[in-house]
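Saturday, quiet lab. Running sequence design on the structure tokens for the scaffold JK sent over.
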């Protein structure tokens, strides 16, 4: 990437200036390349002279030599910079910035480089093949996914996409919570509604049970498939069957919702398998050997406080059943030790924020580096309609159902909007805005940009005009060059999103790129009927093809569709 190459050029120039004696030998801090806020300042800027000037002047004073202003430090660095084909104008400006403008001849040739890269354009190799697992979604299989889990799906999938584009070997996993108390309550709730629908009294929904309308609907599905056969079963056996049938219905629905959202998983991992396969017994042995367990109040506890946790945690309850944290420990032992992931990212809702210290303590207890586990916490979603918060599903009168929102505004809008804010920001999903087919709707605006490019290319084809033999050096208009500059940012955006686990940069970049294309379209007629403009038409068609590729690639990284027509 250009910023990396620029950083290396400036670092080498600084070392050379020190070696030649024009600057004293001091430590060279990290060379950071940034984008100036104002276009007239160039394409990139570096503040290295400002970072170094204090140490430089300290050395000069010790040698009883005149001190230097930051701008003079910058000039001495720039004087030692080696030429590079992509570097055009280089200036040192107060208070001590090095500003760099890209060479415009090199810039136009990047249209060909982008087209040659094809769908790989934007890929970088930050990860160097490191094995990372992103575990996301993972809603309890006890009912329909609500819109909050929709944000989990979107953020987790987008993280996996950008990490893959950044050179990581990514595995996507959905953790199925099919063991424990909640599944028992789920099965019992379903059984009670099943009995009620068949005219049999079966008691009250248990505390912590499920009361949504969907439980009645799913109980009816059991009746439709199996009839009243479970009325003759002992209640405990009937509940067990209900639990399994309910689990199956819940997972079928989750698979369908994920498919509609464009989300795919490499693995759906069963919590129950941790107990059936002996992993839980093994980690209990590991924790005992490490003296990380103790008994209190008839329960087995994990001594989290001794390992940096804020409070000790129950592993086995006084009733002999494993607690939730027991599954967390066994699951992460499986991830790191048995499956060998080098880095694991768990995408969790804000209600799990308090679990972070105990998870880090768990890593230490297992002899693992806590830094290998990233707990990616996202804030909840507020759905707005008519300026008011929507709290309930229109159909079921309970939580806002992800499927209902997809039916309303479409999966593309759901993905785009739920990704558009930083994970630690509360997300407002404005249904009225998402329904609009106007420039005010960012999803429509970006997708229309892609469709507009496709329309231009179709028109050229209908006119018998092609870009064959195009000479992109003909692209000299400021709007043409601005579009190339904007396309060159995609690898930087991917790097930024991967290094900071910040997929929200993608929708913002997509909007900027679409706006830059719309400006080019406004300022530059792409297909001209004037024979004298034939060469320019070919070059502009080439530029439009590259823009379509980059905008489409950005949309696909978000798993938002790139329409050819709108």
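Result came back. Writing it out in full:
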């Amino acid at each position: 990437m250009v910023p990396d190459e620029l950083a290396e050029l400036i670092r080498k120039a600084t070392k050379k200036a020190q070696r030649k004696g024009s600057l004293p030998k001091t430590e060279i801090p990290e060379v950071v390349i940034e984008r100036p806020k104002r276009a007239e300042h160039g394409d990139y800027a570096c503040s290295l002279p400002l970072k170094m000037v204090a140490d430089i002047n300290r050395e000069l004073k010790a040698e009883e030599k005149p001190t230097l202003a930051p701008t003079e430090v910058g000039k001495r660095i720039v004087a030692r910079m080696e030429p590079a084909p992509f570097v055009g104008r280089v200036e040192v400006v107060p208070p001590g910035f090095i500003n760099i403008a890209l060479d415009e001849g090199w810039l136009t040739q990047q249209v060909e480089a982008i087209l040659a890269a094809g769908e790989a354009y934007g890929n970088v190799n930050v990860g160097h093949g490191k094995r990372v697992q992103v575990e996301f979604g993972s809603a309890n299989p006890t009912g329909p996914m609500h819109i909050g889990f929709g944000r989990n799906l979107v953020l987790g999938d987008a993280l996996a996409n950008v990490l893959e584009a950044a050179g990581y070997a990514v595995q996507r996993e959905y953790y199925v919570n099919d063991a424990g108390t909640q599944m028992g309550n789920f099965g019992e709730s379903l059984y009670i509604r099943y009995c009620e629908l068949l005219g049999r009294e079966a008691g009250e929904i248990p505390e912590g049970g499920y009361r949504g309308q969907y439980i009645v609907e799913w109980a009816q599905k059991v009746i439709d498939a199996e009839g009243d056969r479970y009325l003759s079963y002992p209640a405990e056996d009937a509940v067990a069957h209900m639990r399994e049938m309910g689990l199956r219905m819940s997972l079928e629905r989750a698979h369908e919702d994920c498919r509609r959202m464009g989300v795919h998983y490499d693995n759906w991992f069963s919590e129950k398998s941790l107990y059936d396969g002996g992993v839980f017994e093994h980690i209990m042995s590991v924790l005992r050997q490490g003296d990380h367990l103790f008994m209190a109040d008839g329960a087995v506890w994990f001594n989290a406080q001794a390992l940096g946790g804020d409070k000790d945690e129950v592993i086995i309850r006084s009733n002999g059943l494993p607690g939730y944290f027991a599954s967390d420990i066994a699951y992460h032992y499986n991830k790191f030790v048995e499956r060998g992931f080098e880095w694991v990212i768990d995408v969790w809702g804000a209600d799990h924020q308090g679990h972070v210290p105990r998870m880090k303590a768990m890593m230490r207890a297992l002899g693992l580096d806590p830094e290998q586990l990233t707990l990616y916490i996202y804030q909840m979603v507020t759905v707005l309609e008519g300026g008011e918060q929507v709290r309930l599903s229109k159909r079921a009168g309970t939580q806002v159902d992800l499927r209902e929102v997809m039916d309303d505004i479409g999966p593309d809008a759901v993905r785009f909007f739920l990704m558009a804010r930083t994970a630690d920001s509360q997300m407002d999903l404005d249904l009225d805005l998402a329904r609009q087919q106007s420039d005010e709707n960012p999803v429509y605006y970006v997708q229309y940009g892609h469709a507009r490019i496709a329309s231009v290319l179709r028109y050229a084809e209908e006119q018998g005009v092609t870009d064959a033999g195009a000479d992109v050096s003909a692209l000299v208009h400021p709007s043409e060059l601005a579009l190339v500059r904007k396309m060159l940012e995609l690898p930087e955006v991917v790097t930024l999103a991967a290094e900071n686990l910040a997929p929200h940069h993608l929708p913002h970049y997509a909007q900027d790129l679409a706006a830059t294309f719309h400006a080019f379209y406004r300022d530059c007629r792409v297909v001209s009927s004037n024979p004298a403009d034939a060469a320019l038409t070919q070059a502009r068609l080439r530029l439009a093809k590259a823009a379509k590729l980059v905008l489409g690639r950005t949309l696909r990284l978000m798993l938002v569709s790139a329409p050819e027509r709108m």
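Notes for JK: The mean pLDDT is 93. The longest strand covers residues 169-176. Ask whether to fix the surface positions before the next round.
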